[in-house]
Structure formats: C-alpha cells, structure tokens
Design goal:
This protein is α/β, with parallel strands linked by helices. The chain is built from 22 helices and 14 strands.
C-alpha cells in the first residue's frame, strides 16, 4: 500500500510539473478515502460484517483498484501517451534533500505522537467505546486531506517557484499545528462540559489539518519538478512513515509509561517549536525576526503554564456536564491508560467505573455480595484464578476465604498496585503469601499457560460495550477458559447485564446460574447452596475482622438480605436465576464470537 503514492506522484508530476500540487492532491484524495473507510467501519461495517467480513471487503476493493490500474496502464502504454521526464529539473531551487528527509520524519513523529495522546483523551471521555478510535482517525484524516488540498491550491497559484515562501509557510503550519495539538486535550475537556463530544472533533480537524499540510509543503520545497519525483518522494514518504511509527511507539509504549499527558504534550510542543525554527531559518527570514521571537515566547509561555492549562482535564472528561469543580483523590497514568480515584473511593479505569475500595458487606457500595457468593457455590475452591484486579476489594474477599489456598491474579495495568498500597482495606493483599499477582493480558496468560488448572475462575469483567471486551466474553474465550478448569471447576464472570454474554456462556457450558449480573458456568452440576453460604458468612473475617457481628440487629438483618440472593427470582434483574429459566428467556439471543465482537460496535 505504501508504494502507491510515490508511483502516482511520479505519474502526476509529468502532467502538472508541480510536486507540491501533485502530492497535495493525491495525499488529499488518499486520506479522504481512508477517512470514509473509518466512518463506514465505525457506523456500519464492523457491527454488520464483523471482523472477517470487513477484511474480505477491503481485499475486494484492493483487487478492484489493482485491476483498474492495470487496465488503465495497458491502455496508456498502447497509446504511447506517457510523457517522460528522465532527469530532475536542476533549475528548480530546493533545500538539500537530506534536510527535507529529516524534517519529514520529525513532522511525522509529532503528528502521530499527538494522535496517540488524543486517542487517550477520547477513549477516556467515551469510556473506551470501540468507535472512539475509528471516529478520531476519520476526523484526523479529513483534517490532513483538507490541509493537503489547501497546499495543492497554494503550490499551484502562490508557491510555484518560491522556495523561501514555501519554507516559511511550512514553518508556520508546523508551529500553529503544534500549538493547536498541545491545546486540544484541555479544549476537549472544557468543551464536553457544555456540548456533545462529537462536536469536539472539530478541534481534531483543525490541528490535523495544520500538521498534515507540512508533508506536501516539504515535498514541494525538497523535490524539483523534473523526472525522478516518484523516487525522491518515496524517500520523503519513508522518512515520514518511520517518524510516524516512532512517534506512536515511543510516546505510546515508552514515554507515557513514565510521563503524564501534560508533560508529554509539552515535550511535543517544544519539538514542534524546534521544527518551526529549523524551517524558519531555512527560509532566510529577513524582516521576520520579530515573528520568530514571538513564536518562541508563545511556546515557552504555554509550556510554563502547562500545569494550569491541563488542570482538571481528566475530571472534566469524566464528569462532562456533571462537572462542578471535582478533583480526583488519585490519578495514575501509564502506557496502559488512566486510573482515577474519586474522593469517595470509587475507581474509574479508562473513564469507566471499575469498583471501589471497600470490603464491608454491611455497607456494600460495590456489590461485594457477588464476591462472597464464591463460598456458597464451591465447597473447596482451593486454587483460584482472578482475571482483573482493579481496586483489589474483590480479590481481598476471596483471599480471606479459608478454603482458598492459592490465588493467581492476572491484571493488565500495574497502575492499580500503588493505589492498593494506599488503602488499608486492601493493602494487606499485596503481602498475602497465597496471592500471586501477574501483570499480563488475561487471555494471553491463559494461552501461554495451558497446563494451569483451577477450581474457580472469577472475572469482574468491565462493561460489555467497551472496546476489546469481547476478548473476555466470546465463545472462543470461554472455550479457552474451559480447558483451564479442574473437574467440578466454575467460571464466574460479570456480564454487566448483557443478554448476549449470558447466552454465550450457556452455549459453551452445560450448567449455569445467574447471580445478579454475574454468570456462573461449569461442566458439572452446582448451585448456590444457601446453608453452606450462611455458615461461611457467619464465620467470614477479613484481616481478622468479622464480616458480621450477629449480636448487632443491623448485621443480622443484612445477613438475611444477602442470603436472599440464593433464592431464585422471577425478576431477571434481581436475585439468582436458573439455567432453565434463562434458556427460555434468551432462546433467540445471538452469541458473542471473536469475529462479531458482540455489542462493541452496536
């Protein structure tokens, strides 16, 4: 795919004799097409065709394009219509080619590094919706296309042979694009307090348009209008793509693991200023010294005020129209995302509720009764696997079950560990000798440990509509889980009330039970034994503190309330529900597969 642009530039330059105009027009058409694909994927294709269907459709388009190019090419050759320009036009004034190559890489680095940051912003404020990245990328590409069209027009009419002016325009768009990109996160955060999120994509359009217009301008300033334009544009394009890949990798996987969004954005702003200064000095800026100095002062002021500018960004992104000056008690940022803790102990992972620091079943603010239900479902769950740690509250409950001898916890985000250390309700979990915490993706860990078997596997799975969650809800994943259960073992996971998730679990396992929004499944018969659960709860203690003191009337009342969960309820949103009733209720419900991805794109 990367070879098509240089080949087409070589062809079009023979007609126009203008590199900037040719690159601008082709780059615009290419990115408009890419943006349309992103919109189509987000709105229709992924939800309708599934993963494989979309790939098949893309392959068909590639075949159609390739066949069309071959047909057109064969006609052109037979007609002898091609105009040949064998050598570069050395009369064109250009900057040294190696400088253009380096600058193409730097501008690519800046543009894609900012896109990574913008995705974190939009993923957080949407709660990690699957369509967030596709829509962000669509508006990003539209911005690049608009910028490229503007460059095409400018190169044809105003910059045709004026090297210094071309370099100054390139310097200006890099500077303005860097400033707009730096301010985008705070701008979105302030905007979502007042307007729907979709309108904030206008900011992406502006920043991407400015940053994206730099590449065709650099091509115009670096490459002459003669032959060999395709070959030389391929080197610029290669450098730009390498810079883009490095920007995504270094920012996304390295720098953001140590630096905050604010600090990383500030670094990119300074890098953008350096690119501006390089281009400005190359343009021989006589009479523009004051403008250059003003640009430097503006960037330095923005960098110095970054703490103030970015203050409250994530609070606004989370609360949106409910924002009223709230501040988080804690905020952890790393390459895996963001974890926010509110003043009341509520935890938000990636912009979505992810539990609470609480192990008190009397004041059960986080549905802990579902974790305590493990003691009523399995008589001796000695070997337990927990996928997902979050606040550690549920793991703390299971770890204090005297029947549990060994717990493996797989958590993808290490940022939860320092938070757990700060909260006395759960901090002992990190010192518990029977608890082993592994930082990894749950599904990947299961695949790489095929011999590990467990009596009980628990997952307090996040919402079924979030991106990638079908990796933990699909028929294929549950089949993988099945191979890791001992005889009589139980898988117990949060369906977040998704009927598709419930139907999928029942399609894989012959025995099942719903406990509130959790589904327990197994290859062996089991039930939530009310009397066994009562005995366990009355003797349960966490860090030596009894869960219930039956000398207190409120505790006796609460115990009976909890035990009522074991009674089958006709209400599909309450109590527990038998497999037979769920089978009748969900008879025609589709199941989740790796291909259709469940409700992620609906």
């Amino acid at each position: 795919m990367g070879s098509t642009l240089p080949l087409l530039v070589e062809h079009v330059v023979r007609t126009t004799g203008n590199v900037g105009e040719s690159v601008g027009s082709l780059y615009a058409v290419n990115t408009f097409g890419s943006a349309l694909a992103c919109f189509a994927a987000a709105v229709v294709l992924m939800g309708t065709l599934g993963e494989r269907g979309v790939v098949d459709l893309a392959c068909c388009f590639n075949v159609l394009v390739g066949a069309s190019a071959m047909a057109i090419g064969s006609r052109s050759v037979s007609a002898g219509a091609a105009k040949t320009l064998e050598e570069p036009n050395h009369s064109d004034q250009t900057v040294p080619f190696w400088i253009g190559v380096v600058l193409a890489g730097v501008t690519g680095f800046i543009a894609l590094a900012y896109e990574i940051i913008w995705y974190r912003i939009y993923s957080f404020t949407t709660g990690g919706k699957a369509a967030a990245f596709a829509l962000l990328l669509a508006f990003y590409l539209i911005g690049i296309a608009i910028g490229s069209l503007a460059v095409q027009s400018a190169c044809r009419e105003k910059l045709r042979r004026d090297l210094n002016k071309t370099l100054w325009v390139a310097a200006t768009v890099v500077l303005l694009g860097s400033i707009a990109a730096f301010l985008l996160g705070p701008a979105v955060a302030h905007a979502v307090v007042h307007i729907p999120i979709v309108f904030t994509f206008l900011f992406v359009l502006i920043a991407a348009g400015l940053l994206g217009s730099a590449f065709p301008l650099l091509a115009h300033a670096t490459i002459g209008s003669g032959g060999g334009a395709g070959k030389r544009i391929s080197y610029l394009y290669l450098s730009n793509i390498v810079g883009s890949a490095l920007g995504s990798f270094l920012i996304g996987f390295v720098i953001l693991d140590y630096w905050s969004t604010r600090a990383t954005s500030t670094l990119l702003l300074i890098l953008g200023l350096a690119a501006f200064l390089t281009l400005a000095l190359l343009s021989q800026p006589k009479g523009r010294q004051l403008m250059i100095a003003s640009a430097c002062v503006a960037c330095i002021v923005l960098a110095s005020a970054s703490r103030l500018i970015y203050s409250g960004v994530y609070e606004r992104l989370l609360e949106k129209r409910d924002y009223a000056g709230q501040r988080f008690a804690d905020l952890v940022e790393n390459r895996n995302g963001e974890i926010a803790v509110q003043q009341d102990g509520a935890v938000y992972g990636g912009g979505v509720y992810d539990g609470r620091f609480n192990t008190d079943l009397i004041n059960d603010s986080n549905g802990l009764f579902r974790a305590f239900a493990v003691a009523g479902m399995h008589q001796a769950p000695s070997n337990v696997l927990i996928i997902g740690l979050s606040s550690g509250s549920w793991a703390q409950v299971v770890a204090n079950n005297p029947e549990v001898k060994d717990i493996t916890i797989v958590e993808i985000n290490p940022g939860y560990l320092p938070l757990i250390e700060k909260h006395k309700e759960v901090e002992s979990l990190l010192r518990n000798r029977k608890v082993h915490i592994v930082i990894d993706d749950g599904r990947r860990w299961l695949v790489s440990h095929p011999d590990r078997k467990f009596d009980f596997i628990m997952m307090n799975t996040t919402y079924h509509w979030r991106a990638n969650i079908s990796n933990l809800l699909s028929r294929e994943f549950l089949g993988l889980i099945r191979t890791h259960l001992k005889p009589g073992g139980i898988e117990y996971y949060n369906t977040t009330w998704s009927e598709e998730a419930m139907a999928t679990g029942m399609s894989v396992f012959p025995y099942s039970l719903r406990v509130a929004n959790f589904l327990a499944v197994s290859d062996s018969p089991f039930h939530l034994n009310k009397e066994r659960w009562r005995d366990a709860l009355t003797s349960y203690s966490i860090d030596g503190r009894p869960v219930f003191d039956l000398s207190i009337p409120l505790h006796r009342k609460r115990l009976e309330e909890v035990l009522k969960v074991a009674d089958e309820s006709a209400d599909p949103k309450a109590g527990s529900e038998s497999r037979a009733n769920m089978m009748r209720r969900l008879a025609n419900t589709p199941i989740i597969t790796d291909d259709n991805m469940g409700g992620e794109w609906n």
